Amino acid sequence: MRTKLCIAFLLLTACTNGGTMTPAGGGGGAQIQTIDVNLTLNPSSQTPAGNAGGYSPAVTNVAVGTFVRFVNSDGFAHTATAIPGATTFPAGSPYSSSAQTQSGTAISQSWSSGTLPAGASSQTLLVDKAGTYLFGCFYHYGGPMRAEIVAH
Fold first, then answer.
1. What angle (nearest 5°) sits at the alpha carbon of residue 149, between those of residues 44 and 152?
2. Domains of the chain, each with CATH number or no CATH
3. N or C end of the chain: smaller count of CB under 10 Å?
4. pTM (2 decimals)?
5. Residues 36/55, Cβ–Cβ less than 8 Å
6. Burial per residue of 7-16, b for 16 or more beta-carbon CB atoms within 10 angstroms, e otherwise
């Protein structure tokens, strides 16, 4: 009996994902790329889309099939909100108050983390198509608090 239990344990252990983070609701062994949200600690830098900052990394390179999650490590609220169709950062804020409400499940669609209080994390977003996706913060866009995701 003890041998059968040991074999069962080993088989179950072999079938787990070994600690790989997976999104809620399944996703098998899909990876989650975390983007740090912190205007205080993530200084501005030049990216292909323009001046970025407040997120780390400023340019996140991910494979299609990965999930992205934003984690606010700052002491005050932020958003991470898509700028659909943009190839460079707009001069002025492109956001309406709807950016304060969580929306979207895929990076190629319009999406927002909604307002993320200090210490909070966003929903996971599926990186579903190759491309470059720009985003920023509703509250601090001019900070400049904006960055990009490059999916390949």
1. 140
2. 30-151 (2.60.40.420)
3. N
4. 0.81
5. yes
6. eeeeeeeeee
